[in-house]
Write a structure and sequence with these properties.
This protein has helices at 30-45, 56-63, 67-79, 98-121, 127-137, 142-157, 163-186, 190-205, 209-227, and strands spanning 53-54, 83-86, 90-93. By secondary structure, it is mainly α. The chain has two domains: 6-93, Arc Repressor Mutant, subunit A (Orthogonal Bundle), CATH 1.10.10; 98-227, GntR ligand-binding domain-like (Four Helix Bundle (Hemerythrin (Met), subunit A), Up-down Bundle). Strands 1-3-2 form a three-stranded antiparallel β-sheet. Strand 2 and strand 3 form a beta hairpin. It starts with 29 loop residues before the first helix and ends in a 15-residue tail after the last helix.
């Protein structure tokens, strides 16, 4: 079977629905959703390698569907930053170098701690975050774990009260999942990140917005420092949490 994709859309898709990009309209046909989930899972699990060409006919054969849902799924994945599309070379799994990964995490460092601080100050609910941590602990592979971690982070900043800030952070989520899954293949540090997630959630549940933001900043910066070039340090005179 081409590409080594282990999941056919005629079989249950791992974490069906949870792997699907949240921002995509519910009007998308279920078969396209299943194809999207299967391809996304294969990318994050490493079954589809960075830079690997994604040929519609071969993917359709591997998944037992026509080319139409494959084509629509690839367009959605390109919008999420997991796939690149060229009029001459076609679609391919996005390859993220250390400089791009660093830029993604730099953006998160600038925005996400403030969004979480505001969520805590606004009394955001944390049940979704707790469930995401439980699913991450029970995840069967890196792909599912990475996406559950993504859901945890979103549940922490969702109540910040600024839709534009939420949208900006949402745009980074799938790219973050791609970076983390690739990093864990080299150095499986997910257990440390899980402990940090629990500490962030504990601070949020206690209503300590400053501590939650500080722990999140250290969490994001620490992952970046462990796996690739760290984000740019703050300029002189710029206050930053320890």
């Amino acid at each position: 079977m081409p590409y080594g994709i282990r999941t056919s859309v005629s079989q249950p898709v791992p974490a069906a629905g949870q792997l699907f990009a949240d921002g995509v309209s519910g009007a998308v046909p279920p078969r396209t959703v299943a194809v999207l989930d299967a391809i996304k899972h294969a990318i994050l699990a490493g079954e589809l390698q960075p830079g690997q060409a994604l040929v519609e006919t071969e993917l359709a054969h591997a998944l037992g569907v026509s080319k139409t849902p494959v084509r629509e799924a690839l367009k959605t994945l390109a919008g999420a930053g997991l796939v690149t599309m060229s009029p001459y070379r076609g679609a391919a799994v996005r390859a993220i170098d250390s400089e791009t990964a660093s830029a993604i995490y730099d953006m998160r460092l600038l925005l996400e701690p403030e969004a979480v601080r505001r969520s805590v100050d606004r009394g955001g609910g944390w049940e979704q975050a707790r469930r995401a941590l439980q699913r991450a602990d029970a995840a069967a592979d890196r792909a599912q774990r990475s996406l559950e971690n993504r859901d945890f982070h979103r549940s922490m900043y969702l109540a910040c009260g600024n839709p534009l800030l939420v949208s900006t952070l949402d745009d980074l989520r799938d790219q973050t999942a791609l970076v983390s899954a690739a990093a864990w293949r080299q150095e499986p540090s997910w257990q440390q990140e899980a402990r940090e997630h629990r500490a962030i959630l504990d601070a949020a549940q206690a209503g300590d917005s400053g501590r939650a933001a500080t722990l999140l900043r250290a969490h994001i910066g620490g992952f970046s420092a462990r796996h690739f070039a760290p984000p740019h340090p703050p300029t002189a005179g710029t206050a930053d949490a320890p």
